[in-house]
Amino acid sequence: MNKKLAVIFVLLTVVIDAMGIGIIMPVTPDLIRELLDKSLAEAALWGGALSASFAVMQFLFSPAIGGLSDRYGRKPVLLLSLFVVGVDYVIMGFTGSIWVLLIGRIIAGIASATHSTATAFVSDISDPKEKAQNFGLIGAAFGIGFILGPMLGGLLAEFGSRAPFFGAAFLAFGNLIFGSIILSETVTDKIRRALEWRRINPFGALAQVGNLPSGRVLLIIFFIHQVAFFSYPSVWAFYTIEKFDWTPAEVGFSLGMFGVTLAFAQGYLIRIIFPKIGEWNALGLGLVVSILAHIAIAFAWSGWMIYVLIFGMALSFLTTPSLQGIAARNAPDDAQGELQGVFASVGALATIVGPLVMTAAFGYFASNSAPLYFPGAPYILAGVLDTIALIILLGIWRQGRKSAG
After folding, report:
1. What percent of the chain has pLDDT over 70?
2. Domain harbouring 210, CATH code
3. Would the pTM count as exceeding 0.85?
4. Is 230 within the bounds of a domain?
5. Which residues are CB-contacts of 254 (< 8 A; sequence separation ≥ 6)?
6. What is the 8-class DSSP label of residue 196?
7. I want to staple 270 with a disulfide (CB 3.0 to 4.6 A). Which of 136, 178, 240, 303 is the partner?
8. Is residue 214 within 8 Å of residue 396, measured between CB atoms?
């Protein structure tokens, strides 16, 4: 197997998964109103249900998909997922029923829970010292998908509200053909593991990973940081429009710059920082920068400051690959899929909790009835959460030094 081509396939899979979410965002309101003949406010409720159903399926099935890849291999899981996703988008593109659309998002949430398998594949082909750096490529691919998805969806929307679904299906089938040709299996009999219910359900898998060295604490830090991170995608548009009176185009451009910074940090910067200071120090540095960035955004008084802060927060994007790298080095080779499945599942749980918490904070403090008008409240809350994560991390360091002593 050509490792470079294999990595390209895996990264394309992650890009397509990320794009699959964003590519339909521009047309979701219009499509829901087409299907239901409802107002925009009523359509928004269905939009929330579609998003929540996708995230819930990611939480429930990420460990199972990771466990299946530990048993049957990465290649069949990735290829089957792309096939199901492609067919699912075609069905959603033709549907005339809101219920079929909802079921489609549920199926897409299950089939797209391959982030764990993609990360496990990268782990399989990486040296132990390179795991965290290569996990950064996964994050960079997600950032690229985050940029391209809404942009491509907006362009395809010119051809109708169904066109983005067919565009997403085309990408899935194209990558399926590419992977079928170039991909070889990385799971050997030496590391293959039998399926066990207690390990593939999300709660049992959490318990198993929690038994790894510092595993439970790393997952707690990851969850807290992910909830804080959702102050960006969940309230960014509301905050910038409320405070700076930005147009939709300005909001979209700023989100694009956000994705560029994420891709740069996790695809390139990580390879400079990690060898010099190590994963644990990079984790601490990422949390500190994240805290400062959140506070600065909350108190920004001019729109130009946001762009400066977007590029300044690059180091904060080292946090997630640092956590994944540390955990992967502590996990056995036959549990890499399960491990990354648990991380994906915890991330999906944060996807459910984060937007609810952050939008509630914004809605309350940006309303006329608030005791204190402060639309930056979600970012202060995010800063507090990352501070809690940093305190927990310092506790691990302190305990480690005592043990070493």
Report:
1. 76
2. 1.20.1250.20
3. no
4. yes
5. 236, 240, 246, 306, 307, 310
6. -
7. 136
8. yes
Structure-block tokens of residue 344? 């994906």
Q: Rounded to an integer, what distance in angstroms lies between the CA atom of residue 26 and that of residue 161?
A: 9
> From the CA atom positions of the chain, what is the Rg in Å?
21
User: What backbone phi and psi angles, to 5 degrees, belong to 341?
Assistant: -65, -40
Distance CA 340, CA 117 (A): 7
Q: Is 322 domain-assigned?
A: yes
Dig out the tokens for 288 from the structure. 């500190």
How many structural domains comprise the chain? 1
Q: What is the token pair recorded at 335?
A: 């549990």
* Residue partners of 42: CB distance under 8 A and separation at least 6: 36
391: which 2 tokens?
Answer: 């305190």
Q: Using one digit for the tens of pLDDT, what is the confidence trace for 224-251?
A: 998 898 777 677 767 777 788 877 667 7
Q: Is 241 inside a domain boundary?
A: yes
Give the range of the structural domain holding residue 349, as residue numbers without chain letter.
3-184+199-404
Tell me whether residue 297 is in a domain.
yes
